[in-house]
Structure formats: structure tokens, C-alpha cells
Design brief:
Length: 682
């Protein structure tokens, strides 16, 4: 008699408590006073077809194969005290939840405040849930599904004391669960994971096969889009009880092989991005991780003009504290005591679609102040003719190779907090820089970005104690207006050492930037000198004092023949001294060249195997006899004839061009070459 009455009573109470909205059917109910147990089978819960006047209740659909309660404290139940239970078992349950009602402010109560019969509490030694599944369907189609969940909780105390016990999580002394094959959808994205395992005893959380991707057929609006594949996530040493205090604390967070593609919002409305610690509430107040590691990562950002792709990402962080106080700690960098980041190959577009940038390896280490990139390249994405046609103007086409760029003594703290670049050493090893241009196309409309005055516009403070360039090689191939053959100018085996490379006013005033350089013009003429400059000078002022030689005059033929149809047949430079001042307006200075036995030939302009004709031979004779100074000084007892340098600067071209023009201009004026001819050679 007890079992049928109890079954009807439970079914009636559900209907009464929900005001007729829920109906419960129990297929079988058995009690055992001897074993103090209650067993229910075939439970079926349904919601009414019309949810009128029940806006606070969600639509539910539940089917449970088995519920078993063992070791029930009957005496405590009758006295409405704390009721002990040995075991609660729920097996093979499926739950469907409809649209959740709006939450009324202040209306929710804690679980221990909703116990029936005014009981003081319930203590369950073992709670076991086996094979639970379900879905959440606020509309016709589910937006969240759970294939299977298993849970074991021990020493559960559902009471006011249990709620206040800091050694419990959700009333339980220990908790372990396993979720399998979970899918969900939110904010125009759908996500899934293969498994989630959690254990307070093992202090571990494991997530496998996480995937996030945009919903198909989503409108191409301004909303951000994320595609993520994360094979494995591990939290070890997890202090689960701290979660009740809104603190995530663990020994380590390990992410394995994440693959991320992110397209940022295209909205033009300005938005302020919150700092990470400002995004934790309301779920967390603080996040503490002794160690963070990411391995085998990949990242793509196709929504940016640069469209970077980075592979083989490795990240290690120590002593990570994410909260408002740590954000202000000057001894931390992005909340951590130290970071080490390395990546494999990375690519991106520069001045899209004209250039592709790439590096092979990157290492960033905040503990040692090292930043190093290997295998840097900047390569045009199209041929020289197509590049010029697409640009529709005479813009230099560049090819850059930097096998190694290294920053040592880098102050990562200043870089992270203020965006300033302060370092002890900047070193470029074996860089290669090739420039080709064709003046037959329209002249560029905008100023060049490779100029000293452009460095003044840097959006951050720069202060490098020593900058070093080792074995730099430069090659320029320029076709002059009306020409078809490029003039070749090279600077090879170039080394530079620059002290106090800075745009900080106080440092620049106390320590002017000085660069000591050496290299080889046309790979045959030694160049040595000193640059002096101030990056704070709005006029881009800098000076060069140096020497050239010895070298044969013939090294200029690769420039003079295609540009001015002049060949240097004989002659040798013993030594050239120069002193030139450069500004935005141009270059002014003097060059002294000591040379002997100079002879030149004028060449015909029309192409062909024979570059001379009767007219050019006569012109060569007149030039060598009456114009060109064959020796300087003409006699050993005479002084050197100086070669004045006075040229105007075209800001549409890089600083490399004005340096080259200044050197050639001074040499030709020292040789006695007329200015009208010298201008063509330059």
C-alpha cells in the first residue's frame, strides 16, 4: 500500500507545485524500510502544451530510467533534521529544456533554502549520475546538446553550513565528472568538444577536441568571426574550492596545438577594448596560474590588411596573476613574471598586394631581454614590369633579406606598458637590399618612407644604446628617364656601428647619434666614414665625413654608361675625402679626389655592338683635351681641386638615392665633368 500511495503523492506534488504545468509519471516505485531505500524506474516528465501563466517555468521534457536512494535516514526525516543518505544514483536520463524564462532580480534562492518539509539539510555520502544527456532548445532547433555526462560527488552537505564551508565546491567535498560530445551555438558561432573531465581529488581539468566556427550562411556583417581547433587543454593543480570565491587558481595551464583564424569586426564605430582583468567579472575576480604553456599553435588573421599567418607557436609564461593590482605591477609583463614566445615561419602582406613579408623563426624572451627574428624577407609578389604597371608610377621595387635581426637588453616592461622601444643592442646580420626603379613611368606622388625625417614620426620612443649592421649588401638598378638599360650601383661588405640611436629629446641632447661605417663601393672601392645625426631634427639633418679609395674609375661605368653614355676608359683614384651635410632640402659639401690618368669616351645612344661612331670619337677627343681634368692635382706641387657637392633633394625618393647622388656629384665635379652631363650620371 505504501508504494502506490507514495507514487501518486509524488506525481501530485509535481503537478501542484507547478500549478499544472508539469506532469510526472512514475513507471515503478519500490521502497524497502529494512534497507532504507527507494527505487524509481521509468520516470517521465512533460510540460503542458500551453504555458499560460507559467512564464517563470521553462519547458521541460525528461525521461529517466532509474533513480535509487539508499541508506535514507528515516528518523532524521521524520524529525526534519539533517537527513543522511548513503547513495543517490541516477542512471540513463535524457533531459530537454526549452526557452528559459527571464530571471527576476533577487528572486533566486540557494538550493539549501528550497529544501522540502523545512528540513535542516541533506547529507549525501555518494551521488552517482550515469549516462545523462540532453539538449537546450529555446526555439524549434536545439542550440546546445550533451551526448553523455557522468558524475560522482562525495560528502555532499546541502545546508547553510555546507554553503559556507570553504572546503566544499557546490556543497560537495569532492567532485568528478565527465562530459562527452557536447555541441552548442551562440553569437553566430557554433562550438563543440569531444570530452571534458574534471576532478577535485586529482586537481585536474582536461578538455579534448574543442572546435569553434562561424555558423554557416551567416550574413557577412560587421560581427567578428572565429574559427578555433584546440585538440587538448589541461589545467593541473587546480584549486577547485577557490572557484566558489570567484578565483581560478592552478599550477599549470597547457594548451596543445591550437589553430586559430580570427576576422575582427568591420564596424567603423570606435570601440574600446577592455583589459583582460576587466573581462573576468562577473564570473571571476582573479586568475592565478603558476605556469602557462602553449605548443604547436597556428594563427591566421585574414581580416587585416597584413593578413598574417603564424605557425609553430610556442608560449611559456611563469607566475601569471590576472587582476587589477597585477595590471599595475611594474615587475610584471602582461600579468606574468616572465614570458618566452617562439614561432616558426610567419607570412604577411605589406603594401598589399605588392609585397609579401616572411620570417622563418622568432624568439621573444622577457627574462633575458632578447628579441630575435631569423630569415626575414620582403619579396615583391609580381614581376618588375607588372609591378610598375600596377603602381602606375616610378616607385622603387625592393627585395629585402635579413638573415638575423636581434635586440638584446630589450626592456619588455616599457614596451608593454608604454609602447616604447628601449634596448642595449640592435643588430642586423648579413642584410641584403635590392632596389629597382624605372623613371620612364610617372613620378611618385607621395614622399618616400625611407628617410631620416620619417623616423621622427615614429609613434613611440626609441632608445638603443648600440645599433650594429654586419655585412650589409646594397644593389640599386635604376633606369633613367628615356633609357632602357638600368644603371647598377652597389655597396657591399658594409658594416656600421651606431651609438645612441634615439628619438628621446633628453638623450639625444646629451648623446648625439654617431655612426661609424665602412664598406665597398661597386665591390672595389673602400669607403670609411662617420655619420652624425639627430632623429629629433624635423629637417632630417645628418652629416657624413669620410674617405674613398683607392679604385679604378671604371667602377662608375655601370652607372655612367646607361645614364649619360660616358665610359671611363682609364684612370685611378688614389684617395677621396668628403664632408657633406644632408637635410630635407638637399646636400651641400665638398669632395677632394686625388687621382691620375683620367680618360673618358662618349658613347652613341642607339643600341648596337659598336658603341662608338665618328661623332662620339670626336666628342671624346674634345672632352679629354679641353674639359676633363686628367689628373688631380694637375702637377705634384699644386693643390687638389675640390669638387663641390650641391644638389637638391627630391623627397619622393629614399635617402639611399641622395647619398649615392651626393657621392657621384662630388666625384664628377672633381673630375671637371660639366654639370649638365653629371646630372645624367646621377
Amino acid at each position: 500500500m505504501l508504494d502506490p500511495w507514495l507514487r501518486r503523492t509524488l506525481e501530485r506534488q509535481v503537478t501542484t507545485a507547478s500549478k499544472g504545468y508539469y506532469q510526472l509519471q512514475i513507471g515503478e516505485l519500490k521502497t524497502s524500510l529494512w534497507h532504507r531505500s527507494l527505487t524509481l524506474r521509468g520516470l517521465r516528465l512533460r510540460s503542458a502544451a500551453t504555458p499560460a501563466n507559467h512564464s517563470r517555468l521553462p519547458r521541460l521534457r525528461a525521461d529517466v530510467e532509474l533513480v535509487r536512494l539508499q541508506g535514507i535516514g528515516l528518523l532524521a526525516l521524520l524529525r526534519r533534521k539533517e537527513v543522511p543518505l548513503d547513495t543517490v544514483l541516477v542512471q540513463n536520463a535524457r533531459l530537454g529544456v526549452g526557452k528559459m524564462p527571464p530571471r527576476s532580480p533577487g528572486s533566486s534562492k540557494a538550493l539549501h533554502e528550497q529544501l522540502p518539509l523545512q528540513m535542516e539539510g541533506i547529507r549525501v555520502e555518494n551521488l552517482v549520475l550515469i549516462n545523462l544527456g540532453g539538449n537546450y532548445s529555446p526555439a524549434q532547433q536545439p542550440i546546445a546538446t550533451l551526448r553523455r555526462a557522468d558524475l560522482i560527488a562525495r560528502d555532499i552537505l546541502i545546508s547553510a553550513a555546507g554553503a559556507q564551508d570553504s572546503q566544499r565546491l557546490g556543497y560537495a567535498r569532492s567532485l568528478a565528472f565527465h562530459l562527452a560530445n557536447v555541441e552548442g551555438q551562440a553569437r553566430q558561432h557554433k562550438g563543440s568538444f569531444g570530452a571534458l573531465r574534471f576532478s577535485t581529488d586529482r586537481q585536474r581539468l582536461e578538455l579534448d577536441s574543442l572546435r569553434v566556427q562561424p555558423v554557416q550562411n551567416t550574413s557577412t556583417g560587421s560581427a567578428p568571426r572565429l574559427t578555433l581547433a584546440l585538440p587538448r587543454l589541461r589545467l593541473t593543480g587546480l584549486k577547485a574550492m577557490q572557484l566558489a570565491r570567484q578565483q581560478l587558481q592552478a599550477d599549470s595551464l597547457i594548451l596543445t596545438a591550437p589553430d586559430v583564424t580570427f576576422i575582427a569586426s568591420t564596424s567603423k564605430q570606435p570601440t574600446k577594448t577592455k583589459a583582460i582583468h576587466e573581462q573576468l567579472p562577473p564570473w571571476l575576480r582573479r586568475c592565478v596560474l603558476r605556469y602557462v604553456a602553449l605548443s604547436g599553435g597556428q594563427m591566421r588573421l585574414p581580416g587585416l590588411s597584413v593578413a598574417p599567418v603564424v605557425r609553430a607557436i610556442e608560449v611559456k609564461g611563469n607566475d601569471l596573476w590576472v587582476d587589477s593590482l597585477s595590471a599595475l605591477d611594474t615587475k610584471r609583463i602582461f600579468y606574468a613574471r616572465a614570458w618566452r614566445v617562439s614561432t616558426g615561419p610567419a607570412t604577411g602582406l605589406i603594401d598589399a598586394p605588392y609585397y609579401r613579408a616572411r620570417y622563418e623563426k622568432l624568439v621573444l624572451d622577457t627574462s633575458t631581454g632578447l628579441a630575435q627574428a631569423d630569415g626575414l624577407t620582403l619579396t615583391p609578389t609580381m614581376s618588375t614590369p607588372e609591378f610598375a604597371l600596377r603602381k602606375a608610377q616610378s616607385v622603387p621595387r625592393m627585395v629585402v633579406q635579413i638573415p638575423q635581426l636581434r635586440l638584446a637588453g630589450l626592456d619588455y616592461g616599457l614596451l608593454a606598458r608604454e609602447g616604447n622601444l628601449v634596448a642595449g643592442l640592435l643588430e642586423l646580420r648579413n642584410p641584403r637590399f635590392q632596389v629597382t626603379s624605372n623613371a620612364n613611368y610617372p613620378q611618385p606622388a607621395r614622399p618616400s618612407s625611407v628617410t631620416p625625417e620619417q623616423l621622427q614620426k615614429l609613434p613611440f620612443r626609441l632608445n638603443v644604446a648600440l645599433a650594429r649592421i654586419v655585412n650589409f649588401n646594397f644593389r640599386s638598378a635604376e633606369i633613367v628617364k628615356g633609357g632602357s638599360v638600368p644603371g647598377i650601383f652597389t655597396l657591399t661588405r658594409f658594416n656600421a656601428s651606431i651609438t645612441h640611436l634615439t628619438n628621446v629629446p633628453a638623450v639625444a641632447a646629451a648623446h648625439p647619434s654617431i655612426g661609424r661605417v665602412s664598406g665597398w663601393l661597386q665591390d672595389k672601392c673602400l669607403v670609411e666614414g662617420v655619420f652624425r645625426f639627430n632623429l629629433r631634427d624635423p629637417q632630417g639633418g645628418h652629416s657624413f665625413t669620410g674617405s674613398f679609395g683607392p679604385a679604378p674609375f671604371a667602377i662608375l661605368n655601370s652607372v655612367s654608361e646607361p645614364a649619360a653614355f660616358i665610359r671611363f676608359d682609364k684612370g685611378r683614384v688614389e684617395r677621396i675625402l668628403c664632408k657633406v651635410q644632408f637635410t630635407k632640402q638637399g646636400a651641400n659639401g665638398t669632395l677632394w679626389a686625388r687621382y691620375s690618368d683620367l680618360k673618358v669616351s662618349l658613347l652613341k645612344k642607339k643600341p648596337g655592338p659598336d658603341k662608338k661612331n665618328l661623332l662620339t670619337r670626336a666628342g671624346s677627343l674634345l672632352t679629354n683635351t679641353f674639359i676633363v681634368r686628367d689628373n688631380n692635382p694637375r702637377k705634384p706641387s699644386q693643390r687638389l681641386e675640390p669638387g663641390p657637392v650641391q644638389i637638391d633633394r627630391d623627397l619622393r625618393y629614399s635617402v639611399f638615392r641622395v647619398w649615392r647622388v651626393a657621392v657621384v656629384d662630388g666625384m664628377l665635379s672633381s673630375f671637371g665633368v660639366p654639370e649638365v652631363i653629371a646630372d645624367k650620371v646621377e
